């Protein structure tokens, strides 16, 4: 909460470099030599995770205890979801959520030997400390809370991914609002990580920052929440969904799908608040073409119009897709409401996040349907 009015362009927070927890902090710590000795080098992400797990184990003796103590004990990112909950996500998100779980699993399995190498630092066996649960917690702490900060890349850490993470206590208490604009980054002159508000913030209002122009799928995947009225949000139509409206009798169907795929038109097909995206309508236009219109395939993908009856076919099928997605949402929302009745607190939190996502998608689909019905009436 802003305890005083923050004017436009004013600073929201300025955090001195020594408060930032980066891989430099880890490499300078008691864990540094173990990381430096390990081959192949571990990733910057894993270095931060191991440090967090170790510092949490250190309890009040840890220099970072006041920070660790206020970190959430659990998260609502899909890596925490059971398969039953993943099934309740929109189809296009299920794949990414499963990938996230697999990626995490891979990291855990491939890190076991390194965890073991840290044994001299602890009295308790490392298997009891660096558990899958502990790594999941640390992984989500880093993923949901780090700010982007470029710094020198260490030779002791792998370079598969850039080392751009910084855990920023205090600063990481600020929530995201898609409509807020901020200027954020490390200021080399003041040696502080600074966030400046573009629009300002009134006294006693919650001071938000902006994590980036993310849609709700990305917010759920990376941060475990959904922003209501998110202007970046859309409803995705994946290939499985698109197939609901395809004409199996169309002898050119396989060829059309291949053509769409080769031209990168089977990805990023969406419905938004203002109706179907141009990409979705273009894909539908191609799918609508009759056998004798073979010569128009290229021009349709470049934006050429189709005959009135083909355009009507497209609008009709876009409506069909919209209705099918709506039915899918209704079913998922019913199931979520049943599950919520007998859920414990942590499951309830997960169910509520999925429910918010489904409700947001429902809102988008309702707008899309009105747009499509108006087009149909023209
Ligand atoms: C950098 S932390 C922000 C501080 C966090 N709210 C806390 O109290 O620790 C990021 C996390 O905050 C939550 N969060 C941020 N913005 C949110 C929002 N607009 N609505 C709901 N949760 C939000 C999400 O759980 C996200 O993973």
TrEMBL record:
PANTHER family listed in its UniProt record: SET DOMAIN-CONTAINING PROTEIN 4, UNCHARACTERIZED PUTATIVE METHYLTRANSFERASE
List membrane-spanning regions.
none
What is this protein identified as? SET domain-containing protein 4-like
Q: Provide the SET domain boundaries.
A: 1-212
Q: Does the keyword Methyltransferase apply?
A: yes
Question: CDD domains from the xrefs?
Answer: SET_SETD4
Q: Which GO terms describe its biological process?
A: methylation
Q: Which GO terms describe its molecular function?
A: protein-lysine N-methyltransferase activity
Question: Sorted alphabetically, which keywords does the UniProt record give?
Answer: Methyltransferase, S-adenosyl-L-methionine, Transferase
The keyword S-adenosyl-L-methionine appears for this protein: yes
């Amino acid at each position: 909460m802003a305890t005083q009015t923050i004017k436009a362009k004013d600073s929201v927070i300025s955090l001195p470099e020594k408060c930032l927890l980066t891989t430099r902090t880890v490499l300078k710590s008691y864990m540094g030599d173990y990381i430096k000795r390990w081959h192949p080098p571990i990733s910057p992400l894993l270095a931060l995770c191991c440090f967090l797990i170790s510092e949490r184990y250190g309890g009040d003796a840890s220099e970072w205890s006041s920070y660790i103590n206020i970190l959430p004990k659990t998260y609502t990112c899909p890596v925490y979801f059971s398969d039953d909950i993943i099934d309740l996500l929109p189809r296009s998100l299920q794949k990414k959520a499963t990938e996230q779980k697999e990626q995490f699993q891979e990291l855990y399995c491939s890190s076991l030997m390194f965890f073991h190498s840290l044994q001299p630092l602890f009295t308790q066996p490392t298997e009891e400390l660096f558990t899958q649960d502990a790594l999941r917690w640390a992984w989500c702490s880093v993923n949901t809370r780090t700010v982007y900060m470029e710094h020198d890349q260490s030779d002791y850490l792998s370079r598969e991914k850039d080392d751009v993470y910084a855990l920023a206590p205090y600063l990481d208490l600020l929530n995201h609002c898609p409509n807020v604009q901020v200027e954020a980054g490390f200021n080399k002159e003041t040696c502080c990580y600074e966030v400046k508000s573009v629009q300002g913030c009134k006294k006693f209002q919650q001071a938000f920052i902006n994590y980036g122009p993310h849609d709700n799928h990305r917010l759920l995947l990376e941060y475990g929440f959904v922003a209501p009225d998110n202007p970046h949000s859309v409803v995705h139509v994946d290939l499985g969904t698109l197939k609901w409206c395809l004409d199996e009798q169309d002898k050119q169907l396989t060829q059309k799908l291949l053509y769409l795929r080769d031209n990168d038109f089977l990805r990023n097909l969406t419905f938004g608040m203002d109706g179907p995206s141009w990409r979705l309508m273009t894909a539908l236009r191609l799918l609508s073409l009759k056998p004798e219109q073979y010569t128009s395939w290229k021009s349709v993908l470049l934006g050429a119009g189709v005959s009135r009856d083909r355009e009507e076919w497209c609008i009709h099928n876009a409506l069909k897709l919209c209705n099918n997605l709506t039915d899918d949402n209704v079913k998922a929302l019913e199931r979520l409401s049943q599950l919520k009745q007998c859920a414990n607190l942590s499951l309830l939190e997960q169910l509520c996040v999925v429910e918010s996502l489904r409700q947001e998608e429902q809102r988008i689909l309702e707008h899309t349907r009105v747009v499509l019905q108006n087009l149909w009436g023209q």
